[in-house]
Design a protein that fits this description.
The structure is a single chain. With about 240 residues, the chain is of the alpha/beta class. The protein has a single domain, classed as Protein tyrosine phosphatase superfamily (Protein-Tyrosine Phosphatase, Chain A, Alpha-Beta Complex). Strands 3-4-7-5-6 form a five-stranded mixed sheet, with helices on one face. The chain has a two-stranded antiparallel ribbon with strand order 1-2. Helix 7 packs antiparallel against helix 8 and helix 10 packs across helix 11.
Length: about 240
């Protein structure tokens, strides 16, 4: 989560402070299938292949996460968050491959000082400050037998929302739909709502690169083959 959300962290005297009791209570929430979205070229994202959610250190009995038949869970939380909250629910951990791609260590580490961020660019920084992590994320999604997969951060709305936006853009989903998926997190967190404008700097950087493929290759560092493989695995013919 970025420092601007207030859901798990806030800037207090320029240092990131995390309300872990709040974070614990949102385990298993904000879960949805990214499948079903139509693409600009007439295809559709496969259902029951790629999901997003809040953290899964514990999973409430009523959570649909229990029935997803996941093969892979990708955690985007910082190492500190995982050390405090736990990595993955024990029952789920026994049946899935767990991959931890830390995003935010330099913000959440003890003694770290959060650098000022230009207002409105909090989600862009989640991309530009953690390019290597996103490179690993997309390379992982191109591996064999990774699906069905789920990726999450703490609340499943900021880091997870940025990852979902880039992935949906790669798969050819219209930006209006990408913004709508981003805003679905407001159902789970109505007191700290996201705004569609928070994705605009990311879309601007993509457009500055020329297109999503050039952005992913030159800004994130993934290969054209990785992009091709993800599209093959996640798009219906």
């Amino acid at each position: 989560m970025s420092s601007s959300t207030g859901s798990a962290g806030k800037l207090e005297k320029e240092q990131m402070v995390v309300d872990f009791e709040l974070v614990r209570r949102i385990a298993g929430r904000n879960l949805r299938d990214l499948g079903g979205h139509p693409t600009r070229d007439g295809k559709r994202i496969k259902r029951e292949h790629i999901y997003r959610s809040a953290h899964l250190a514990t999973i409430p009995p009523e959570s649909p996460a229990h029935s997803l038949k996941l093969k892979t869970v990708i955690t985007l939380q910082s190492k500190l968050e995982v050390s405090v909250l736990g990595g993955l629910d024990g029952t789920l951990a026994a049946s899935v491959r767990w991959e931890h791609i830390p995003i935010g260590d330099k913000w959440f580490s003890a003694g770290s000082i959060a650098q000022p961020i230009k207002p409105g660019h909090e989600h862009l920084v989640l991309v530009t400050d953690f390019r290597d992590a996103w490179q690993t994320f997309f390379m992982l999604l191109a591996q064999e037998e990774v699906y069905p997969a789920l990726f999450h951060c703490s609340a499943g709305r900021d880091r997870t929302g940025v990852g979902a936006a880039m992935l949906l853009e790669m798969l050819g989903v219209e930006r209006e739909r990408i913004r709508a998926d981003f805003l679905e997190s407001n159902t789970a967190f109505p007191r700290i709502p996201l705004s569609p404008a928070q994705l605009d700097p990311i879309f601007a950087l993509i457009d500055q690169s020329g297109d999503i493929d050039s952005f992913l290759v030159h800004e994130i560092g993934v290969s054209p083959q990785v992009i091709k493989t993800i599209r093959r695995d996640l798009l219906e013919e």
